[in-house]
Amino acid sequence: MHFAPVLKSTLIAGAVFAAGAATADDIAAREKAARAASAAFVQKLGGALKEEMQKGGPEQAILVCRDIAPQIAGDLSRANGWRVTRVGTRVRNPMLGLADDWEHKVLNDFRARAAKGEKYPDMAFGEVVEIGGAPHYRFMKAIPVQEACLACHGSAEQIPDGVEAKLASAYPQDRATGYQVGELRGAVSITQPLDIPLVPAGAITD
Ligand code: HEC
To answer: What are the pocket residues of ligand 1 if the criterion is a CB atom closer than 6 Å to any ligand atom?
Structure first.
């Protein structure tokens, strides 16, 4: 897929431009909705992960990351008419987690911004790009590594043997280990076709 940036965005910094039919207000509303959806994604997944880790330990919780994450992403996608995914700086599941060219560029920008002192928990970026000749609003919210991630994404010493065995058999292509707390793990990535109107705020309750 080829993405031609039609506007270099400083949306997050506050300045907003119109692109094609989209007004500055439209884009600001889309950014707000994307931020809310990203927060909901991270919160729901984090909650489910924590619960399962406490109940059944990390071996059981593998299923949360495998099944619940794509399910939440799918729910948000269907409810809004968007494409909502999770991408990694390195990936465990190349079918779902691999960044495309635009996402790679944004992940690299995130790391450059962090090197200048910005913090991942507040970091996001959005801009209007053309996909297949049609304008889309694309947005990414950084996901940092936390302590709770290390049992499955940390070093060989941090990953329990039982988890390692399960991961090795389910994900022979796994590259998503060796992370440290505070590093960039990936991002929530949202693509909104501009010709699909925003669902009014409050219309999605779940
Ligand atoms: C219990 C094990 C486990 C824990 C704990 C865990 N993950 Fe994962 N993670 C996985 C598995 C399994 C996948 C692959 C999911 C799939 O099949 O798409 C994954 C995939 C991901 C991906 C998608 C990119 C990829 O590598 O395929 C991201 C991003 C991610 N995890 C972030 C996190 C973060 C952030 C935390 C901590 C808050 C975390 N994970 C904690 C097991 C875990």
So the answer is: 46, 49, 58, 61-62, 65-66, 69, 86, 88, 91-93, 96-97, 143, 145-146, 148-149, 151-153, 176, 185-186
Parallel, antiparallel, or unpaired for β 3-5 and 134-144? unpaired
Could you tell me the domains of the chain?
A: 3-7+22-193 (3.30.450)
The rounded distance, in Å, linking the Cα atoms of 156 and 123 is 29
Model confidence, pTM: 0.88
Q: Check: CB of residue 46 under 8 Å from CB of residue 61.
A: no
Q: Which residue's CA is minimally distant from atom 37 of ligand 1?
A: 149
> pLDDT tens across 119-170, in order?
999 999 999 999 999 999 999 999 999 999 999 999 999 999 999 999 999 9
**CB-based burial, 25-49: b 16+ in 10 Å, e otherwise:** ebbebbbebbbebbebbbebbeebb
- Structural element, H or E, at residue 128: strand 124-131
Amino acid letter, 160:
P
